[in-house]
Amino acid sequence: MRRPGNLLITISAITPAASVFIMGQDVIHQAGTGAILCFAAAALLGLTTAFVYAESSSAFPLTGGEYSMIGRTMGPAWGFMALGLNLVGGALGQAVTALGLADYLGVVAAGVPALPVALGVTAATTLVTVLNIRLNAKITGVFLLVELAALGVMTALGLGHPHRSIVEATLHPVMLSGSVLVHTPWLVIGVGTAGAVYAYNGYGGAVYFGEEMYEARTKVAWVIFVSLAVVVLAEFVPIAAAMTGAVDLKGMLAADKPLPVFLQAAGGELVEKAVSLGIAFAIINAMIAIGLINARQLYCSGRDGAWPGPVNRWMATVHPRFNSPWIATLVMGAATAVCCLLPLDLLIMLTGTGFVIVYAGVSAAAIMGRINRTTDVGHYRMPLYPLWPAASLVMLAGVAWAELIDPDEGRPSLIANLAVMAISAAYYLFYVRRRGGWTLRGADGAPLEAEATP
Length: 454
Hints:
454 residues; mainly alpha; Amino acid/polyamine transporter I; two-stranded antiparallel sheet; 2 strands; 2% strand
């Protein structure tokens, strides 16, 4: 496929509408109108990280994504940490998205049970992701138009009838404490920013389709920057519109689902149902796109020999008709179905910090790639190096610190993800390395180390 096809799948994997109505609502619950600052800070972090992803993806446009980038530049143990975080986080994130579907279908058909819907949509979207990548790009493109239209309606309702200025909502953020609106502390802004980072997450996912894209080394950077720009616009503006357009801000922040409450107050029941149906389409779209990414990560690890012999052969099997990693796709679909059995609050807590750690790893890998010249094979070189990876690491450290001192959600999430990293590194050191090591391979199956560098 060409750049537009990759762009459609990448933006669909980020799923702006579902991100706003699932992760965005969680940020609003935490920070109130401070969600505007959270999403603005996450956008700035996204820009610095996009430069890092663009350079690394140009050098290694492989289906392994961060696992391949970090493993090649920093060493196998670090690569396996990224692999563990992505495989676990991918299944958990899919489950969060699937369980959120019933909330929006319930507005149209009351009493829809969450778990059966989540398991059903997981099975259906897994089968769709087995299909050819070009067909999936067309499917996700159609769904994407629907979800962007839903966000457009929400934006028009908020900006068309503002009840407070954007300056007031941004410079004087408030949150609900008991039944009183109070100033949002900076610590809460920091913790909420981690959720906003998760909401934007996915623009680097363009690299997962590098092996199925024409001239990926010269084109993938464009997909990364454009997808980030579209997603920031599609998520930040609706969030800001809802914060400024809420008639009863206290009532909205007190609601379990603040954004549907805003829609009903601003546009009526019919608008709320129409937008909720659009969000349901967005969730289905996201599951298709994220399923494509999860399967390719597992496929690449099998091709590189990360697992016991027979497992490697199964994970690296490509469907003879659809040219897709069909066994890896089914395995990740099954893992998502198992994760759907976990409580939603636990799933959100576990997924939040993993993306922050992966971003830090990619930023460090970009610096290391310049030092050891492993990224010299890439076409795109970030300007003002090392400003962008250094800025990313500083901002990510701030988010991680805010997570660490939050005893309720942040610290448990950080500990859980560090445990996944430790287990993944131990798996490499005590099994893979003793078995004979690990070899990162390119699309043709040849060892990547054999590729000539300038």
